[in-house]
Amino acid sequence: MNVQTRVKERAEEQSTAMSAEQQSAIRVLANELHRLNHAVMRAVDAGVSVELVRSARHHGGEGNWGDLMIPVIVTQPR
Question: Which end of the chain is less crowded, N or C, counting CB atoms within 10 A of the terminal residue's CB?
Answer without folding.
Answer: C
